[in-house]
Amino acid sequence: EEKIFMARVAEQAERFDDMVDFLRPILSEKGGDFSVEERNLLSVGFKNLIGGKRTAIRTISAIEQNPKYSKFSDALGQYKKKIEGELGKDCQDIINMIK
Fold first, then answer.
1. Tell me: the pLDDT tens digits for 29-77?
2. Which residues are CB-neighbours of 49 under 8 A, at least 6 positions away?
């Protein structure tokens, strides 16, 4: 009950990584058998968690296309790979949670 409450607080604070973290122990206990509320909270948290990273990747890709910033292409590429790695990890985490 406290974890659900804290997940709601994290949602209001737009701390979606924390929201997913609060839900993680509840979901691992239930093994995929979630209540409607838990499923909705997970959906909102995960959607917003990955949405920010996807936006960041698109932004960096757009900057990479600008010839004005070509001298920074290595740094931009590394930064984009870092975010892509985080995104991949988040996606794998959610898959593991709902198995």
1. 877 678 898 889 989 999 999 999 999 999 999 999 999 999 999 999 9
2. 16, 17, 19, 20, 90
Helix axes 73-98, 16-30, angle to 10 degrees: 30
Q: Kindly give the residue spans of alpha helices, DSSP state H, lying in the chain.
A: 2-12, 16-30, 36-65, 73-98
Question: What is the reported pLDDT for 60?
Answer: 97
With CA atoms as reference, report the closest residue to 52 among 79, 15, 89, 23. 15
Give, as one character, the DSSP assignment of residue 68.
Answer: G
Q: DSSP readout, 5-25?
A: HHHHHHHHTT-HHHHHHHHHH
Whether residue 10 has pLDDT greater than 80: yes
Tokens 């920074």 belong to which residue? 72
CB within 8 Å of 24: residues ≥ 6 apart: 93, 97
